[in-house]
Amino acid sequence: MRSLWLLPARRTASAPNPLVVNVSARHCHLSQETVEILFGPGYKLRPWKSLYQDGQFAAHESVTLIGPRSRVISNLRILGPCRSFNQVELAYTDAIALGFEIPLRLSGNIEATPGGMLMGPAGFFEMPKGVIRALRHVHMHPDDADFYAVKNGEDMRLKIGGPCGLTLEKLLVRVDKSFKLEVHIDTDEGNACNLQPETPCELTK
Amino acid sequence: MRSLWLLPARRTASAPNPLVVNVSARHCHLSQETVEILFGPGYKLRPWKSLYQDGQFAAHESVTLIGPRSRVISNLRILGPCRSFNQVELAYTDAIALGFEIPLRLSGNIEATPGGMLMGPAGFFEMPKGVIRALRHVHMHPDDADFYAVKNGEDMRLKIGGPCGLTLEKLLVRVDKSFKLEVHIDTDEGNACNLQPETPCELTK
């Protein structure tokens, strides 16, 4: 089930918290205003599955993304809760199929990125910007940052084992008291190394 | 143009031959018998573009691959010349989209692999086996093998730079007098690191 946006958690023995590496399939974050344009006035996202980070969820709702070459991605999952901006996160394989040229960006940094048309059951919304490939990153609590001797904004490396293993260089560190230790990679990265629940992963400075 | 099965060649300064890293998008190799079933009696593949390895080409012809969930991949490029067996090489992202569970195999090693239905303009052909993800590998001449101090069947590593760089571990070495130095990776691997013509690549033992 590699293509799910959330893979089963994988762990390695490591203090103070277990290492979890999850693959995010393509998805979007929307503002409440955009949700209402797509799904109707007053509409609220309905949580379907909880994500590993506290309070985050995959919604029952999904949208259709229409690309510049009139190709579409159906069932683009919405992650909640709503944010103050709209953002679509694709793998490069998705973007090439749709005909998007998308930049590699830290989530939330969407100035001067391409937009796209979203379609929901109640209407269309033309996003003026916000289609990106998300920069791979690791969420961690300050206790984890102390353990790995890294600071917010630094880079780490993730070595992924197995018969088609690879080492991801430049994994951005994001530290916050609300974060649980979790690496987020996309489907291109997860499929390149065939990441499975039993695949060994090692996070190093 | 990352999605082309053949990216522009990239080179680094290295004796005795330049290092070329190419991304193979999904494609198939067919026997002459299968070509005739799909395209008609006596049909010959028509070379469209030469590949980097001498004598190999992408054909004008493509087929439709029909997966177990009745999803299809259209325009699956045929590479020539014909071989003695039929083989479809997909990235894991392709296989997941189609509903295939495919193994990682060295090209040509297709015992106990899944099959699939191919459709051409003149007919269908039910491949009993041969759908794989190809093991990443590097072709090299014996002179290159001497330079890198490796032997046929050993593993090397390829470090790919850039803002989403990675190091591919376990790159299989294939040595033959007819080979030119060339790494073959698939679209998951190429897109995971956004391999571009200017991306620096380093092959090490």
Structure description:
2 copies of one chain form a homodimer. Chain A is mainly beta and 205 residues long. Chain A contains 4 helices and 15 strands. The first copy, chain A, has helices at residues 32-39, 92-98, 142-148, 187-192, and strands at 20-24, 27-29, 47-50, 57-66, 72-80, 87-89, 104-105, 116-120, 123-127, 131-134, 137-140, 155-160, 166-175, 182-186, 201-204. In chain A, the strands form 2 sheets. In chain A, strands 2, 3, 4, 5, 6, 7, 8, 9 and 10 form a 9-stranded mixed sheet that branches. In chain A, β8 (116-120) and β9 (123-127) form a beta hairpin. The longest helix of chain A has 8 residues, at 32-39. Chain A is globular and about 50 Å long. Mean pLDDT of chain A is 92; it is low at 1-11. Chain A binds chain B through residues 2-3, 91-93, 96-97, 104, 133, 135-136, 163-170, 187-189, 191-192, 194, and chain B through 2-3, 91-93, 96-97, 104, 133, 135-136, 163-170, 187-189, 191-192, 194.
Keyphrases for this structure?
homodimer; 205 residues; mainly beta; 9-stranded mixed β-sheet; 6-stranded mixed β-sheet; 4 helices; 15 strands; globular; disordered N terminus
